[in-house]
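Q: Sequence in, structure out?
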Amino acid sequence: MSEETSRRKKLMVRGGIATAVLLVIAGIGVWRFLRDDAPDAVNLEDAVAVATAEGPDDSVAESVAESEAVAGVWVVDPTIGEFTFESATGSFVGFRIAEELSTIGSTTAVGRTGEVSGSITIEGTSLTATSIVANMSTVSTNDSRRDSKARSALGVSEFPDATFVLTEPIDLGRAAEDGSPVSVTAVGDLTIKGVTNQVEFELQAQLANGIVAVVGSTEVVFADYGVTVPSAPIILSVADNGTIEFQLLFVR
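A: Exactly. Output:
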């Protein structure tokens, strides 16, 4: 084999390796771009795991459990867990909307804010009052390019807060006292962009390590709140209805 032929073969091999590497990199990029990277919906198991990991020590938890059971006023504790869009382990409120993107297909648009405050009041084994406030002007989404449009659609310059106020007491049952999970329906007034409608949130709650962990969700039609879902050239269609969800961690 001549020296020139050997040199050409080496160049071909190197070129083939470089091409393969580029194809792999391109494939990874396409996968990242096409995948639906929406975070998982709220679930009680994850919320309780945070409470168990970051709540008071066992002696404090036992003292809380033995003192008036779960009765009292509980407030959202923003120091439990943390809030980033990708890793929202603390308290947060958000929304989920189905959309169809050109060349990509079906995805889920998700927005969340970790700036949440509020309280719940438990008398005996009944939840008698709830008031939650979420600062929607700090909503972030799974695509930073839509953040400003989402905030604008929510009218945060004039109506920065979304609120929920319980209007009917809820019987939690005796299971709430011994740390068992509880599933109930909460009826109340949901206010978004200054418009209030009565809704029903499906809730799950559990007392764990001195913390009441609560997750919930409800389906809403955004037009009922004067919210027009943002559009963009890449968006083929987007639902005018979606899910409002939250994860809240309360301490007494």
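The chain has two domains: 1-35, 38-251.
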